[in-house]
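job 3f2a | input accepted
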Amino acid sequence: MKAANQDEKIDMTEMLSEAIDRQEAIVLMGEDRNRNKQHFLPIIRSDNGKFLNLNESEAPVMDDIQDRFAQILSPKIPDEKMQTLTKAVLRMKKVKAIRLGKPWQR
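job 3f2a | predicted structure (106 res):
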């Protein structure tokens, strides 16, 4: 990733692969029909280039990322027929349903 300081603009003409100040990061993305949330975790590498740890991000909170992996959830709630069909396909594929929340409290 490449980030700009608060008062500067990112040079969009520079290829990320050629940017000297680029950073490696993992982006956690979550969305529901009401909001999107992203969290950046910069990668820390040791002197020999191996993965060492993840750092806390100094990136500002972003709630409007637009990319091919963002905003993929349909704003329309599926009707009962589509929900039934989807559940049948997931059963056929042997996908297990899990309850979201705190797994240690199940």
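job 3f2a | The chain has a mean pLDDT of 79.
job 3f2a | closed
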